[in-house]
Design brief:
This protein has about 400 residues and is α/β, with parallel strands linked by helices. It is about 40% helix and about 20% strand. Helix 4 packs parallel to helix 10 (about 285-300) and helix 11 (about 300-320) packs parallel to helix 13.
């Protein structure tokens, strides 16, 4: 099907709630995408951090194909091997004790919110239900996850919202301390705020956050939907801070291209969501779990994680070496990086480099976001960055 026909079908039958770029992709290989005309693109977005092993990874394709031919789905009223293996592996890698699987990051965050409130209700009774999140955060599009998102622009139109959320600035320990009143049951944070602008938390802030929540028996929830599964050069971003949360949510790169979300919990939380308290029809689907196990085979290796960190350092070094006035700052970690622009529209830059064969994302109001496949090579990194440099140079001439 040609691009014009695809676009026509979308206009006729699809809700127009996405600002789609003027291209249709039909295939991918490694870090490359190909459109309906056969044009090649270097992908610095990986489906918003989803395609962690790149496109068509043979190990992942084989695992998914074999499982699809064996058992596609049963309900959670029965055991399956892929789910059990994934739960065991993921909890060990995360330093957690139990896992629940759903379909997305938003669903994982909804479950974490329920878990936090039930934990507090059972231990302290009614009235201790407030969840503190950060300004510029993003936790999903479902109602509770959307309310947890500390960006007013996402809150238009959908009133009334779920009660019991409070927002504080990132990296401000005084504001955090003031917010942790007796009605608070949990604090939910991202190690690096992705959608909000690729804004990392500081080590001193995370240390204080961990100390205060532990002292007050407030659950510390790390939203690792985007930062998890090797994206920042450690398996999860909180491991780079050397802290131990009570609850971890993750999704995106875990499935390698298939929909999965996970809630991981520590010892004191592992029995909170007791039988009948939560569920997901497709959660723990055998095909999806087989794909996630294939992802873990690769990204959990120490040498692979070290390579992700090194690639991120090299990208920063190259970009800062350009010394372009259009670039204010490069921030982030591993292969989750933000390029803060000075006076340029990130959306305009992203649209222009797309025409040159580079897929790149935006974040917040002033940043480009780089989330390439974790398997991307040196040559593809340098080629993609050269496209970006040429475009930014044009803007500043």
């Amino acid at each position: 099907m040609d691009f014009a026909k695809i676009k026509e079908l979308d206009a006729e039958s699809g809700m127009q709630n996405y600002g789609r770029n003027d291209v249709a992709f039909v295939s991918g290989k490694g870090p490359f995408l190909y459109d309906t005309e056969g044009k090649e693109y270097i992908d610095f977005g990986s489906g918003i951090g989803v395609v962690s092993l790149g496109y068509g990874n043979p190990h992942w394709v084989d695992a998914v194909s074999r499982q699809a031919a064996t058992l596609s789905h049963v309900s959670n009223l029965f055991y399956t091997e892929p789910y059990a293996v994934l739960a065991s592996r993921l909890t060990k890698l995360a330093g957690m004790k139990a896992a629940f699987f759903g379909n997305s990051g938003a669903e994982a965050n909804e479950g974490a919110i329920k878990l936090a409130r039930k934990y507090s209700f059972e231990k302290y009774g009614k009235g201790r239900h407030t969840i503190v999140t950060l300004l510029q955060s993003f936790h999903g599009r479902t109602m509770a996850a959307l309310t947890a998102t500390g960006q007013p622009s996402y809150h238009d139109y959908f009133f009334p919202f779920v009660e019991g959320f409070r927002y504080v600035p990132a990296n401000d320990s005084d504001e955090l301390k003031a917010a942790l009143t007796d009605d608070v049951c949990a604090v939910m944070v991202e190690g690096i705020q992705g959608e909000g602008g690729v804004i990392p938390l500081s080590q001193t802030y995370v240390d204080e956050l961990a100390r205060l929540t532990s002292q007050k028996d407030i659950l510390l929830i790390f939203d690792e939907v985007q930062t998890g599964n090797g994206r920042t050069g450690t398996m999860f971003s909180y491991q780079g801070f050397s802290v131990e949360p009570d609850v971890v949510t993750t999704a995106k790169g875990l499935g390698g291209g298939l929909p999965i979300g996970a809630i991981l919990v520590n010892e004191k939380c592992k029995n909170v969501l007791s039988q009948g308290m939560h569920g997901s029809t497709f959660g723990g689907n055998p095909i999806v779990c087989a794909g996630a196990n294939a992802v873990l085979d690769v990204v959990s290796q120490p040498e692979f994680l070290a390579g992700v960190a090194q690639k991120g350092d090299r990208i920063k070094e190259i970009i800062l070496g350009w010394q372009l006035p259009a670039i204010k700052e490069v921030r982030g970690k591993g292969l989750m990086l933000g390029i803060v622009l000075d006076g340029l529209s990130p959306k305009k830059v992203a649209a222009d480099v797309l025409k040159r064969g580079l897929v790149i994302l935006t974040a917040g109001s002033d940043a480009l976001r780089l989330l390439p496949p974790l398997t991307i090579g040196k040559e593809e990194i340098e080629k993609g960055l050269e496209i970006l440099r040429c475009q930014l140079t044009l803007f500043t001439q």
